[in-house]
């Protein structure tokens, strides 16, 4: 019985209240829920929100119709109209080179010398031949003086019939022969003198001089090398000492498309910009339009003169030029033009359009009327206003009202 009573007591439900819950666990649960909410919001902001397309923009520029308006843009290179690779007139071994790259030289300045041994020997021989010819003239002159005196004496005696006429005639013949020999000897002296001058030129040819004032841009030979005005092949013979450029003859050559060459006129004002110095605007003007076209590229070459001379301008530099509209006569109305980068103008559904910023993160599709233009700029007649910002290279799927993000500069 006692064992059954004990078993019944164990099955009885204990209705006493338990210990109160811990506050630390409650705060941990709340913090976990908040963290999950923060992560969810960040994920939504990162992935679910429409951030827009990243684009680059440029402003619409307004300008008057004066000489500062570009009607055509082109690119080209700085070239020198006066440049020479200086070489010796003869083949010889270089003895001394007196130039370095970047060195300024004057006309006639010695740039290098060749070994003069052969030229000096030839000159010495020619000088000796001239001296021998002059000695021969003196000898013949002495014989002629004696023969003339003898002929005069016999002429007096033959009149007195003291000598035969044959003796007189023989003396006259000898005199005339010596006169001819004297003329020949004198001519030999002149020839020997001319040969000496040629020998002097040969000696002078061993000295290489600058043909004009300029700057050395290349040094092509070293002492001990063989130089020749003609290439000997094999890579062991130099054909030049160095290259000299007249920096005052620098100009820009640009290739203009055939379709736009009608906008360019000789004497037209030009603004040039070197690729190395994009913030430096150099005033220039058109020298000439070369009267021939490149069939392969469909371009015409235009020569542009630089009005500023500066050591920073060197041959073969890349340059871009803007051909400026001619100034209008005083009193004529100036037409205000708008210009936008050509990269902002696209064709969509048969219309010429651009996408202008509407607010901070939206774009608006604008239908444009353009007047033309080539190169980096287009002239806009309607559809945009001064100060508008337009999207450069708009994506093909960009539409009116789309959200955009401006790319950092």
From TrEMBL:
Pfam families reported for this sequence: Beta-barrel_RND_2, BSH_RND, RND-MFP_C
Residue ranges of every copy of the Multidrug resistance protein MdtA-like C-terminal permuted SH3 domain listed in the record: 340-393
Coiled coil region boundaries: 130-195
InterPro entries per UniProt: Beta-barrel_RND_2 (IPR058792), MdtA-like_BSH (IPR058625), MdtA-like_C (IPR058627), RND_pump_MFP (IPR006143)
Listed transmembrane segments: 26-47
Domain Multidrug resistance protein MdtA-like barrel-sandwich hybrid: 82-228
The UniProt record lists the keyword ATP-binding: no
Coarse class of the protein's main subcellular location: other
Keywords: Coiled coil, Membrane, Transmembrane, Transmembrane helix, Transport
Compartments in which it is found: Cell envelope
Annotated CusB-like beta-barrel domain residues: 252-325
Transmembrane helix listed as a keyword: yes
Source taxon at top rank: Bacteria
Listed NCBIfam families: RND_mfp
UniProt family annotation: Belongs to the membrane fusion protein (MFP) (TC 8.A.1) family.
Protein's name according to its UniProt entry: Efflux RND transporter periplasmic adaptor subunit
């Amino acid at each position: 019985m006692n064992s059954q009573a004990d078993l019944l007591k164990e099955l009885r439900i204990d209705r006493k209240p338990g210990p109160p819950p811990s506050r630390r666990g409650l705060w941990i649960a709340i913090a976990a829920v908040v963290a999950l909410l923060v992560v969810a919001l960040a994920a939504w902001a990162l992935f679910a929100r429409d951030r827009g397309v990243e684009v680059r923009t440029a402003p619409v520029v307004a300008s008057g119709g004066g000489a500062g308006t570009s009607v055509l843009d082109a690119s080209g290179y700085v070239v020198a109209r006066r440049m020479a690779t200086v070489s010796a007139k003869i083949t010889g071994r270089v003895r001394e080179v007196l130039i370095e790259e970047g060195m300024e030289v004057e006309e006639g300045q010695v740039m290098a010398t060749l070994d003069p041994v052969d030229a000096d020997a030839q000159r010495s021989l020619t000088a000796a031949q001239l001296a021998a010819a002059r000695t021969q003239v003196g000898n013949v002159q002495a014989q002629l003086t004696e023969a003339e005196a003898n002929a005069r004496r016999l002429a007096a005696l033959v009149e007195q019939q003291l000598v035969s006429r044959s003796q007189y005639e023989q003396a006259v013949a000898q005199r005339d022969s010596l006169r001819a020999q004297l003329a020949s000897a004198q001519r030999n002296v002149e020839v020997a003198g001319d040969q000496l001058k040629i020998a002097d030129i040969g000696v002078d040819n061993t000295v290489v001089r600058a043909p004009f004032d300029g700057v050395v841009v290349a040094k092509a030979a070293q002492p001990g090398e063989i130089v020749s005005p003609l290439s000997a092949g094999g890579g062991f013979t130099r054909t030049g000492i160095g290259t000299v450029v007249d920096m005052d003859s620098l100009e820009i050559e640009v290739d203009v498309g055939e379709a736009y060459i009608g906008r360019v006129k000789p004497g037209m004002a030009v603004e040039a910009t070197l690729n190395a110095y994009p913030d430096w605007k150099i005033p220039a003007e058109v020298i000439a339009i070369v009267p021939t076209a490149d069939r392969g590229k469909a371009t015409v070459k235009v020569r542009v003169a630089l009005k500023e001379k500066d050591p920073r301008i060197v041959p073969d530099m890349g340059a871009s030029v803007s051909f400026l509209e001619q100034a209008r006569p005083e009193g004529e109305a100036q037409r205000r033009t708008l210009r936008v980068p050509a990269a902002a103008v696209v064709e969509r559904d048969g219309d010429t359009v651009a996408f202008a910023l509407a607010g901070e993160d939206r774009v608006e599709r604008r239908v444009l009327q353009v007047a033309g233009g080539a190169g980096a700029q287009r002239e806009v007649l309607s559809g945009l206003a001064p100060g508008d910002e337009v999207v450069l290279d708009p994506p093909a799927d960009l539409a009116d009202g789309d959200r955009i993000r401006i790319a950092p500069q």
